[in-house]
Amino acid sequence: MTALGGSSLGGQIGQCLCGAVKVHGELRSGDVQACHCGQCQRWTGGGPLLAVRVQDLEIEAEAEIETYQASNHGERAFCRTCGSTLYWKMQGKPPSFVALGLLDDQSGLSVTEEIFVDYRPAWMPAWPDATQRTEADMLDALAAYLDGGAT
User: Fold this and answer.
1) Contact 66/78 with Cβ under 8 angstroms?
2) 97 in Cβ contact with 52 (< 8 Å)
């Protein structure tokens, strides 16, 4: 098992479809982020990437993980056996979010932030009370991050 985001092994919170990749850690909150960018829509088959932040994230079976450099700064990971979406992360950084579909228990969660909302399909309504961030908002946040600012 490889520690990707923390140093202590938390309980198993989920796995991919075939069970080859297991996710350990603790959810930081019940907050779910929905990304509507074009890449996430294609990657998930049409909907947003729904992701949760995990504290002390450890992922079992690193040899089963395949990655794809999706942009100059981002990397997407999936199970090489079943193709399950695992996570998106900044290149050179450990992942801190995992795909919601990996979780064994999704109770108590709600979408609190939508990003790249200018790409949300017209047929999909916004989540009530979720923070809405456009592509411009996200590019500004990325530029600040790359310049050494907070995420």
Assistant:
1) yes
2) yes
Q: Rounded to whole angstroms, how far apart are CA atoms 81 and 64?
A: 7
Query: 125: which DSSP letter?
Result: P
Residue type for 45, please? Answer: G
DSSP state of 64: G
How much is the pTM? 0.86
Residue type at 139? L
Q: In what order do the strands lie in the sheet with 85-90?
A: 65-69, 74-79, 85-90
3-state secondary structure of 42: helix
Which of 95, 96, 102 minimizes the C-alpha distance to 21? 102
* 97-132 residue pLDDT tens: 999 999 999 999 999 999 999 999 999 999 999 999
Cβ atoms of residues 108 and 95 within 8 Å? no
Give per-residue pLDDT as tens, 27-44: 989 999 999 999 999 999
